[in-house]
Design goal:
heterodimer, A: 288 residues, 2-enoyl-CoA Hydratase, Chain A, domain 1, disordered N terminus, B: 12 helices, 18% strand
């Protein structure tokens, strides 16, 4: 039996509204309710368990920094091109405001963080998308950073690991964001033609223009359990075909079954799996 | 609303479609080739080989259909993954014989549906982008109507991209953009303006090389000059070393939107 199953959230406690002042102070962040199984989880426990629900294996979304912390050996991550910032190139309404808001909320300058690090001692280019920054959408800065990271990896003969999380191309940059799909694909191709390994990790959600470009171009494509992986999102499809979609449609497991993902890996085993695959390809530590 | 007029013109059902262009320019020399050798023949993509002013060319077009029956049959030009895979198969074939590739783009977008997702729409488009970028033969894409997002780009990773003056090319439809941004798809005209999606806008942004005048069905002279223009471009690019050509194509896309 789960020890925490009987604990209800604070606001569900009887008469809690009246007695709030008499209760000992419990910070909201201390408990997290699993959206999948509704179990109340101690946030420190969740953190220790790779942000995965110990009860039902629900994978909470990670931001890019958490993702890097999860995969990179301690103090080995060296960020690249962190200074690049999006501009409102086509003068799209409210874009500047949205950028500012996302910057404030995430502390990042755009929707991807790139760099090099060691993964269990193996030097790798690591690209992590930030789902909180304008829904992880790809604009020119995102595309440029990904492209530069691939070019760097090609030049230094490094493998690349991408953790994808994106709502697709960023419409506020119009056609120029669409062009990033071609640009990043070109950089992936050059890396591939140099005989180098590219592993993608599809996390919740990977959709649209990112699915239709570098996310689906890995030599090996991994996915996190239950992650939404789609070209067109479920709502768009429902509107197009005017019927309800099956429940597990476009989950990682579904996409695996259809043959577009190599392996669904729980986050607890992700780093080990990456290390293992990198080792099979004879990669090791490199001094950059 | 100037931009939205262009959108409506690009969608005009009486516009010439890819098949019209192929018939007018290749006449009897066109041999249609079918199927992706994997799943099916997607009729939203028409492709084959033919002779253009004496030059063997592979031609691939997104085809909307010219009447209601054809439009149903061709899924209104919205391709499934097998359509993009057929296109890629024909491009790889063109590469083998060092034959230039001519693409006509006219689609509201890649099809959004259960089968399309099950068969890997994202994967099919992604593969085209990657392979076209390194294809060792010249590619030229001409937008003759709508250019809807990734579904259009999957036939437009080319050495040069040209657009008819009444064609559009966008990351999202103006209706889709308006309904996401303002929860109101009737504001599409405003979105069309803001998205910068007309041929002239894209030329100004440096995304395309040429804006072409709209040919009429009977206008032989117009088609002849278009043929000449296409053949000259192919001749120029056939003379470039194939690795260099692929590099130039990469550089073409590499610099788009770089204002850092």
């Amino acid at each position: 039996m789960d020890l925490f199953a009987f604990i209800k959230p604070k606001n569900e406690l009887e008469g809690s509204e009246d007695k709030v002042e008499n209760q000992p102070y419990v910070p909201d962040e201390m408990w997290i309710k699993c959206p999948e199984c509704n179990t109340m989880l101690l946030s420190t426990d969740v953190e220790e368990n790779f942000h995965v629900c110990s009860h039902c294996n629900h994978h909470f979304r990670l931001n890019a920094r958490q993702r890097i912390q999860l995969l990179a050996d301690k103090d080995t991550f060296v960020e690249m091109d962190s200074e690049l910032e999006s501009k409102n190139i086509i003068d799209f309404p409210d874009y500047n405001k949205k950028l500012e808001k996302s910057k404030e909320q995430t502390g990042e300058k755009d929707s991807v963080i790139c760099g090099t690090c060691n993964i269990s001692g193996i030097t790798t280019t690591l690209i992590c998308m930030e789902p909180g920054f304008m829904m992880g959408s790809m604009g020119t800065v995102t595309g440029e950073k990904v492209t530069r990271a691939f070019e760097y990896a090609t030049e230094h003969m490094l493998p690349v690991v991408v953790c994808a999380a994106s709502g697709g191309a960023r419409m506020q940059e119009g056609i120029l964001s669409l062009m990033q799909m071609a640009k990043t694909s070109g950089a992936v191709k050059k890396h591939s033609d140099a005989g180098l390994l590219y592993i993608t990790v599809l996390t919740d959600p990977t959709t649209g223009g990112v699915t239709a470009s570098f996310a689906m171009e890995g030599d090996i494509i991994l996915a996190e359990p239950k992650a939404l992986i789609a070209f067109a999102g479920p709502r768009v499809i429902e509107q197009t075909i005017r019927q309800k979609l099956p429940k597990d449609f476009q989950t990682a497991e579904f996409v695996l079954q259809k043959g577009f993902v190599d392996k669904v890996v729980s986050r607890q085993y992700l780093k080990d799996t990456l290390r293992h695959i990198l080792e099979i390809h004879n990669y090791g530590e490199v001094q950059l | 609303m100037r931009a939205f007029d262009k959108v409506l013109a690009a969608r005009d059902a009486n516009k010439l479609t890819s098949i019209d262009y192929i018939n007018n320019m290749f006449s009897d020399s066109f041999v249609e080739l079918h199927g992706d050798r994997n799943f099916a023949d997607d009729k939203a993509v028409v492709g084959g080989i033919g002779i253009l002013n004496g030059m063997p060319v592979t031609v691939i077009g997104l085809e909307k259909g010219r009447n209601t029956r054809e439009r149903m049959e061709r899924n209104f030009g919205m391709a499934h993954p097998e359509g993009y895979r057929k296109a890629l198969r024909l491009m790889k074939q063109a590469e083998k014989f060092h034959r230039p590739v001519l693409c006509f783009v006219d689609t509201s977008g890649a099809y959004c549906g259960i089968g399309a997702e099950e068969r890997g729409q994202g994967h099919a488009i992604a593969t085209n982008l990657m392979e076209m970028m390194a294809l060792k033969t010249p590619i030229l894409s001409i937008f003759i109507g709508e250019g809807g997002s990734g579904g259009a780009l999957a036939l437009a990773v080319a050495d040069e991209v040209w657009m008819l003056e009444d064609s559009v090319y966008s990351v999202i439809s103006p209706e889709g953009c308006a309904s996401i941004l303002w929860k109101d798809s009737t504001k599409a005209p405003e979105a069309a303006e803001k998205l910068k999606m007309t041929a002239q806008d894209l030329f100004d942004l440096g995304v395309i090389e040429r804006v072409l005048r709209q040919p009429k069905a009977e206008d032989r002279k117009m088609f002849e000059s278009l043929k000449l223009l296409i053949c000259r471009t192919f001749e120029k690019n056939l003379a470039v070393d194939v690795d260099e050509l692929a590099n130039l194509r990469y550089e073409r896309f590499r610099k788009l939107g770089n204002i850092f």
